[in-house]
Design brief:
The protein is an alpha/beta fold. The protein has two domains: 388 residues, Glycogen Phosphorylase B (Rossmann fold, 3-Layer(aba) Sandwich); 324 residues, Rossmann fold, CATH 3.40.50.2000. The chain contains 34 helices and 24 strands. The strands form six sheets. It has a nine-stranded mixed β-sheet, sandwiched between helices. A six-stranded parallel β-sheet has the order 21-20-19-22-23-24, with helices on both faces. Helix 23 links the parallel strand 20 and strand 21. The longest helix has 26 residues. It is globular. Bound molecules: N-[methoxy(oxo)acetyl]-beta-D-glucopyranosylamine. The site of N-[methoxy(oxo)acetyl]-beta-D-glucopyranosylamine has 18 residues, from helix 7.
Length: 791
């Protein structure tokens, strides 16, 4: 390993050890590790070909992979080797790991789920490709100026990406615009614009080197580099214009989470990566099959929400226009390959494209969508329409072109059946199924929490890493005093490390014995960071009113970004920072209450915060959080949840036991019922003197003394259109927080509850989720050889 690293340093980086920077060392290490994946990767491809295996194609606009170096090293079981080699070379392993930029090719839950799924597919040995976009700029970087969010472009590709292989030979033309010709029963699309999609491959190797799949990200390139005529005329800007336009398609990730951005460029991005992926998988299929009617036996395409929903019409187009299959046969054939996952019920997230726009950019696809629509209406008269009020509704399109549609938690799936797709569900009663989300235990325990990982492994070996249900054996350790002490100590160590980091980065001193209460996720009204903040102010008031009470010291930690155009979310960010300024400087609550909000929350920060958390805030309005996956990461790392009966919280609570979970709030049914009452928010505020006081303080400028009107909008919203029922759940939330306070006072009991959480989370491994998809949706299996190896 040492020699390999030095060789890489010299021959790939062109540096000698005396002049190498941390970046050089990291690249040398990464390339060395990458070399070790190649055999497994190639062999997996060969085995999949030999076995003529069905392949899974996971199409996703987002893969929120974060840093890869630790996953790569640990899945290859190279930790000790790499660490040892670097020590011998006088280098610091941790410094090198932390030098890797966090690849933020996604917004939040949907993108991170795709990344966890890639790890599980490889670990289970299921032949799969992840297909997405190689964004030049990932999710924006966030900083705060006077408490307000500032966005700057993210630049992960300013450095070479260590893990990818560029594939200049894997390139497909992607067409837009133009018109369609119908001649002698043959249809021809004459596009007006063309770009090239070039593949970049990142190998994804499973735990213990079992199997290697590929994350294939497409980058947009111009068909011709530049216009020489313009250049020779001296018009240099014009010479580069078409090149710049082409590259725009993969330039930046849209920074929206669960909202519809509805922009022309976004539609082009969606079609760009979907069409490239379909050309690629068709090429692979036709290499060793000639009968397209067998396609569904070899190809499973999973649509990660509606962003790739154009895959339906695109696959039909390829089958009909390029391979001469009848339309009537092509539609069910495509459907047998396709499945669709719904990730949210929020109406503002349901993608719609104006018919005029879709028809202008994808004229042939609009024709095919009309035919799909007619076919559906003929077979199921009165079916909900894809085309309505001049829009193409992508949810309906995805549903109608999928043989299975899945929700991401038990509750969410029931709500999908009852609300957004109620009518389609009546027509296709077996199409909607549930696959509750999961998380990869490799990243979310093994790598992010070495203290707890070693404790567990010492107690029971490392079988749990690929079989997380084994953690149930930990329940017996509850009465093992030495184990429990070590369990508590590992949490205490993580909290001390986090306190150091927060001291350095935010300049705020924390007491590691205080309760670390953490809410990290996108800032959104339905997630109710505002309710958490109002409760913090109420607690501050109570602490000041009763200074002699035995208060449980708290640290409230917030993390998360707001979509740049989401003004209410940005006000909430500012309010958190303004309140923090006042409370953190109040001598009356010193040592008892602190608020920290480190900027630029990302996957790497989550890996730091989650292992150091005591209390996990999962407080969305019931019925609004489709699943949540952060909730699972916290519980696995021994945090207790304070939460509503929403998304996967419901199933987490069932697994960990209601006595180990702080429940509060209205249920989904009660939420819908409450909204029918006129003036429900005012009534709730009037019934809660505590809430009234907090809202009064915010409204009169207690936290913005030089701009007292700053939060009138926020307070007014709570009085007049509190759609997410912050006011109605406030008292119940406050009470649950006091139950948490009391429980925390008994450290041993708290630790026992925390252990029950860790020990009960096995079911939430994304390995279980992927097995469910493979069985119920894809009918995909590991080829024989891989099964033998893991047996
Ligand atoms: C998210 C959901 O909000 C979250 O509850 C879920 O855990 C996650 O998907 C994975 O299923 N949805 C999105 O991020 C999104 O953009 C369109 O939905």
């Amino acid at each position: 390993m040492k020699d390999d690293i030095l060789n890489r340093l010299q021959f790939s980086l062109g540096k000698d050890a005396d002049h190498a920077s941390v970046y050089d060392w990291r690249m040398a290490v990464s390339l060395t590790v990458r070399d070790q994946m190649v055999d497994t990767w190639f062999n997996s491809t060969k085995e999949a070909y030999a076995a003529s295996s069905k392949r899974v194609y996971y199409l996703s606009m987002e893969f929120l992979i974060g840093r890869l170096i630790e996953d790569m090293i640990s899945n290859l079981q190279l930790e000790d080797t790499v660490r040892g080699a670097l020590t011998d070379l006088g280098q610091d392993f941790d410094e090198i790991v932390h030098d890797e930029p966090d690849a933020a090719l996604g917004n939040g839950g949907l993108g991170r789920l795709a990344a966890c799924f890639m790890d599980s597919l490889a670990t289970l040995g299921i032949p799969a490709f992840g297909y997405g976009i190689r964004y030049e700029h990932g999710l924006f970087e966030q900083s705060f100026a006077q408490g307000q969010q500032v966005e700057r472009p993210e630049t992960w590709l300013n450095q070479r990406h260590a893990w990818e292989f560029e594939r200049p030979e894997v390139q497909f033309p992607i067409c837009f615009g133009g018109h369609v010709d119908h001649h002698d029963g043959k249809t021809t699309w004459h596009p007006s614009e063309k770009v090239l999609a070039t593949a970049y491959d990142t190998p994804v190797i499973g735990w213990k080197n079992e199997w290697g799949n590929t994350l294939r990200l497409w980058s947009a390139e111009p068909v011709s580099q530049f216009d020489l005529d313009s250049f020779n005329r001296g018009d240099y800007l014009a010479a580069g214009r078409s090149e710049a336009l082409a590259r725009t398609i993969s330039r930046v990730l849209y920074p929206d989470d669960t909202t519809d951005s509805g922009k022309e460029l976004r539609l082009k991005q969606e079609y760009f990566f979907t069409a490239a992926s379909i050309q690629d998988l068709m090429r692979r299929y036709l290499q060793d099959h000639d009968d397209l009617r067998q396609l569904p036996e070899h190809v499973a395409i999973q649509l990660n929400d509606t962003h790739p929903a154009i895959a339906g019409p695109e696959l039909v187009r390829v089958l009909v226009d390029e391979h001469g299959i009848d339309m009537a046969e092509a539609i069910p054939l495509a459907r047998a390959c396709l499945a669709y996952t719904n990730h949210t019920l929020l109406p503002e997230a349901l993608e719609k494209w104006g018919e005029w726009l879709l028809g202008r950019i994808l004229p042939r696809h609009l024709e095919i969508i009309r035919i799909i629509e007619e076919t559906q209406q003929r077979e199921h008269p009165g079916s909900p329409r894809i085309l309505e009020h001049g829009d193409v509704r992508m949810g309906e399109l995805a549903f109608i072109m999928a043989h299975k549609v899945n929700g991401v938690s038990a509750l969410h799936t029931e709500l999908v059946k009852e609300t957004v797709f109620a009518d389609l569900h009546r027509i296709h009663p077996t199409r909607i199924i549930n696959q509750t989300n999961g998380i990869t235990p490799r990243r979310w325990l093994y790598n992010c929490n070495p203290g707890l990982r070693d404790l567990i492994t010492d107690a029971m070996g490392d079988g749990w890493v690929a079989d997380l249900e084994q953690l149930t054996a930990l329940k017996a350790k509850r009465d093992d005093a030495a184990f429990m002490q070590a369990f508590q100590a590992s949490k205490r160590d993580n909290k001390a490390a986090l306190s150091n980091w927060i001291g350095q980065t935010c300049g705020i001193a924390l007491d590691p014995d205080a309760m670390f209460d953490v809410q990290i996720k996108r800032i959104h009204e339905y997630k109710r960071q505002l309710m958490n903040l109002l409760e913090t102010v109420a607690l501050w008031n109570d602490m000041r009113d009763n200074p002699d009470h035995d208060w449980t010291p708290r640290v409230k930690i917030f993390g998360g970004k707001a979509a740049p155009g989401y003004y209410m979310a940005k006000d909430i960010i500012r309010l958190i920072n303004d309140v923090a300024e006042v409370i953190n400087n109040d001598p009356a609550t010193k040592g008892r209450l602190k608020i920290v909000y480190p900027p630029n929350y990302n996957v790497t920060m989550a890996e730091r915060l989650i292992p150091a958390s005591d209390l996990s805030e999962q407080i969305s309005t019931a019925g609004k959080e489709a699943s949540g996956t952060g909730n699972m990461k916290f519980a696995l790392n021994g945090a207790l949840t304070i939460g509503t009966l929403d998304g996967a919280n419901v199933e987490i609570r069932e697994h960990v036991g209601s006595e180990n979970f702080f429940l509060f709030g209205l249920t989904a049914a009660e939420v819908m019922e409450r909204r029918q009452h006129h003036g429900y928010a005012r009534a709730a505020i009037e019934a809660s003197p505590r809430l009234q006081r907090v809202l009064g303080q915010i409204a009169e400028g207690r936290f913005a003394p030089h701009d007292t009107g700053r939060y009138h909008g926020v307070v007014g919203m709570l009085y007049d259109h509190d759609y997410f029922l912050v006011t109605c759940d406030f008292d119940s939330y406050f009470d649950a927080q006091r139950r948490a306070d009391n429980a925390y006072q008994n450290a041993d009991n708290w630790a026992a509850m925390a252990l029950m959480n860790t020990a009960s989370m096995g079911w939430f491994s994304s390995d279980r989720t992927i097995k469910g998809y493979a069985r119920d949706i894809w009918n995909a299996h590991p080829p024989r050889a891989a099964m033998d190896r893991s047996a």
